[in-house]
Amino acid sequence: MFKKFQNHIFWTLTLLVLYLSAISCEITYGITLRDTKEKFSIFTDGSVATDIIEADDGSVSWIATANRGAGGGLSFYAKENKDEINISNYESIDIELDYNPIEGKWNTEAKNPSFCIRILPWDSTGMFGGFEDLEYVDAEEISGTLKYNIKIPSDFSEKIKASSDFDFILGFAIKFNDYQRGNNDGDQLKVKLKNVKFNAKKDAVEDKAFDDGLIESQRGSVIEIYYPTRDYTVEESALTDADRYKKHAWVYLPSGYDANDKTIEYPVFVLLHGRGQNENTWGLSNKGRGGKIKGYMDRGMASGNVEKFILVVVTGVASKNWGPNGAGYDLDGYNVFQNELRNDILPYLRENFNVKEGRDHVALAGLSLGGGQTFTIGIRQCLDLISNFAGFSPGLQMQPDDIIAEVDSNPDFNGLKIHNLYLTCGDKDLSVYGRYPSHVNSMKNWDRIEIFKEYTYPGGTHDFPVWYNGFNDFIQMLFKKNETENQNQSTTKVEYQTFTKIRKTKIITKCRIKNN
């Protein structure tokens, strides 16, 4: 009898342990969709958060660091299996997180912490690679718990479509908002995300499987290259082996590109980033769906609205400080990039890819400081190599009138026209917009330019929604025959358009800022 009792106790305790183990394996925190809770699935590409911890209870914590408005954040998939959902099916999002500044690493004069909730369309490549801001939320206390219900505007799905053509979203991101809030670079905030819940609309249909309508043969490909170059901040007589290296870049090849078919050649477009960024910043990648700009090119070329070309995304720092994959802060390296562009990048592309000869088949564009390089290096120093240019919120280090005067007085550039020049900037861009209208006014009256277009982005700040929109605008212009192509250059007519006038149907929703 006693032995039976012992066995009974043993099995009772065993079952209790198993039951408690099962309970402990259930997640307390996570993401809820359609009443189903799953673990958070982190989208690590492009994240600048540090000390990321995925706890057993399902919460995720990280350290966010202030960095000139790009405070560290983290991205998450909407579903653990990484499938997309349709944002048009949801009316709001509930978030719950804990936050507290790191002791000794917070400016006491700064405002209370603030967060930006970002939605990642299907073609996003992470924290900064293709997002659309949903809402900024300011905390009422210096530290504590933030619980907030974010309403999804009725036209937000149209904003996603304007950015990515479809309303499929890959996930969301939470960014520490250190933009103009009194934070010093290096200020740190610890964030612990507990719960996120996507609240479906009443009678919302099931989320559809992603389909952009393209077949695989219509998609371009993305490859990595390493081209030989050198540190151009070092005098040639002083160069050492350490000053010569191979440099990483991303290359997009259009659908149908055949390396062995030398009878078909393509124009080439060189794309630059801003200060503190690198060749990865634009999000072009050989992972997943390749990023937002790949989607723009794939769809535009498939429809015929965009002429096929080869794109190369490089780091515009011509010194050892370029990386690899590092942060470009070396202004001396930025300023001598002309040598790398002229001596290394373009010759390498022509030697290794089927690239058309001639300046008419070359384009250069960049965002922020890279947009400034487009003017000070591209137009001012390389007009004999390039005839198509774009500046996305360009950070000019020279006055436009000075650039114009220098180019017009250069005998090597006599008779050389700028076929296309495109400019864009957000009207809420506190870094650039104060000077932007005068830049537009100078350029639109320059008789060297054949086609000039600009788009002022309503509500846009110094951030990627403006720059992605600008990239998509610019590629619609590139490498197309225009009415002046076969005319004598001295009689070329200048065409000036503003996208604010000709794109009346474009819907852009300004992000509303609310206090918690």
TrEMBL record:
Report the domain of life of the source organism.
Eukaryota
InterPro entries tied to this protein: AB_hydrolase_fold, Esterase-like, Mycobacterial_A85_antigen
Leader sequence residues: 1-25
Supply the Gene3D superfamilies for this chain.
alpha/beta hydrolase
* GO MF term set: acyltransferase activity, transferring groups other than amino-acyl groups; hydrolase activity
Name the keywords, alphabetized.
Answer: Hydrolase, Signal
Q: What is this protein called?
A: Alpha/beta-hydrolase
Organism, as annotated: Anaeromyces robustus
